[in-house]
Design goal:
Blueprint: H1 2-8, H2 11-21, H3 26-42, E1 50-51, E2 55-56, H4 58-76, H5 88-91, H6 95-113, H7 116-129, H8 133-140, H9 144-170
Antiparallel strand pairs: 1-2
Length: about 180
């Protein structure tokens, strides 16, 4: 298929985009890009991804990558450990890490509360309950575009406010949080 060949030319670019912008590891990024290719192959009119004969419609393909990433994260959810399988290694808690995480969590909640009433409710519904954007749009009776732009803005605000603290947490520099 001609469209797949053109998209595959930039395969490493797509994988890097998913890994960097969607914060996925390399294996997951590869899976997401492969799933996007399958989605394109299954389409009735895959020429939507092209301008003319060989110019890629980057925006459209990036939207496909984003939607596949969101679907995968929503389906996987949080990893849980059955109660019966808990062992001593899971019960040993690093108190310093717990305290640092609590400080980081409190900063995130404080930042979310600064979004205003609408922003606070919307972001908590999206981040905690994992409602889809369409579900939020229909529940709030607000356009999908407005919900998308608001969530994107809130996510960026959280990254700006907590980015350095999150990096300190990942690097186990708990005293800097």
């Amino acid at each position: 298929m001609k469209v797949l060949e053109i998209l595959a030319r930039d395969h490493s670019k797509w994988c890097n985009f998913v890994a960097k912008n969607l914060e996925a590891n390399e294996a997951i990024a590869e899976d997401i890009v492969q799933d996007a290719y399958l989605k394109v192959a299954a389409m009735k009119n895959p020429n939507k991804f092209l301008y003319g004969d060989d110019q890629i419609n980057y925006w459209y393909f990036i939207q496909v990558l984003n939607s596949i990433y969101i679907d995968k994260t929503r389906k996987v959810g949080l990893e849980t450990i059955p109660y019966e399988d808990l062992s001593i290694q899971y019960l040993e808690v690093d108190m310093e890490m717990e305290e640092a995480f609590e400080r980081l969590y409190n900063k995130a909640i404080a930042e979310i509360n600064e979004f205003g009433r609408y922003g606070s409710i919307l972001s908590q519904m999206y981040f905690k309950t994992r409602y889809s954007l369409r579900d939020l749009s229909s529940m709030a009776e607000v356009s999908l575009t407005s919900i998308y732009n608001s969530i994107r803005s809130y996510r960026q605000d959280l990254r700006d406010a907590l980015g350095e603290d999150w990096e300190d947490f990942k690097n186990q520099d708990y005293d800097k949080i």
